Amino acid sequence: MLHIPKHKLLSLLEHASGSWQVFCPSRQGPTVNFGWFEGMVDPDLIPVNSCKGAFLPQTEELFTYRGTPETGLSLAAGVDEQKPVLVFFARPCDARAFTLLDRVFLEGEYADDRYKNRRARSVVVTVGCKSPLDTCFCTAFGIGPDSKAGSDVFVYDDGTSLYFEPLTEEGAGFVSSHSAYLTEGGTPVSVMEELRRAELPLAGRISVEGMAEALDSMFDDPVWEKMSARCRGCGACTYLCPTCHCFSVFDAPRGVRGKRYRSWDSCQFSDFMLMAGGHNPRPTRKERVRQRFMHKFNYSVKRQGDYLCVGCGRCIRACSVGLHAASALFDLKEAGRCKGC
Amino acid sequence: MNDLREQLREAVASAFSQGRVRSFVCLEKGFYPFASIPAILHSGSEADRVQLGLSDAPLLAKYLLDAPKPAGIVVRQCDALGVSRLIRDRRVKREDLYIVSVSCPGVVDTAKIPVSPYQITALENAGDALLVHTALGRTELPWASVLLDRCLSCVSGSASPDADVVLEGEKEKLPAPVDYSGIDKVEHMTPDERYAMWEKEFAKCIRCFACRNACPACSCRKCSLDLAEPEWLSPAVTLPEQFMFHFTRAYHVAGRCVGCGECERACPVGLPLMKLNRKFTRDIETLFGVDDARIPRDVEVLGTFLPDDPEEFC
Question: Is the pTM of this model over 0.90?
Answer without folding.
Answer: yes
